[in-house]
Amino acid sequence: MSNLKNVEGWVVTGHHNDVLTYVGPDEPQDQSQIAVGLFGRSRRHRDGTELYVVHVKDKQGSPQRK
Questions:
Q1: Burial, 14: exposed, middle or buried (Cβ in 10 Å; 0-12, 13-18, 19+)?
Q2: pLDDT tens digits, residue range 13-65?
Q3: Band (1; pLDDT cuts 50, 70, 90)
Q4: Beta pairing partners, 12
Q5: Cα–Cα distances in angstroms (integers) from residue 15 to residues 1, 37, 38, 41, in the given order
Q6: How far apart are the C-alpha atoms of 3 and 9, rounded to whole Å?
Q7: Alpha-carbon distance 2 to 37, whole Å?
Q8: C-alpha–C-alpha distance, residues 54 and 7, integer Å
Q9: CA–CA dist 42, 26 (Å, integer)
Q10: Which helix (H) or strand (E) holds 14?
Q11: CA distance 26 to 9
């Protein structure tokens, strides 16, 4: 977990340093490090398990037939 400069809230990291989850200062009632970290991790888990695809655009176009 990292504190942010010029922004209120925290950034929670996980096993991959490039995956960051923002937790706003008004979100967890308990603002201890463990509570904020668990809140951020649960949000990241929800993002990975509850999201669904709304639209896919294939930039490659249709394959040409011979």
A1: middle
A2: 888 888 889 999 999 899 999 999 999 999 999 988 998 888 888 877 666 66
A3: low
A4: 21
A5: 12, 13, 14, 10
A6: 7
A7: 10
A8: 31
A9: 16
A10: none
A11: 8
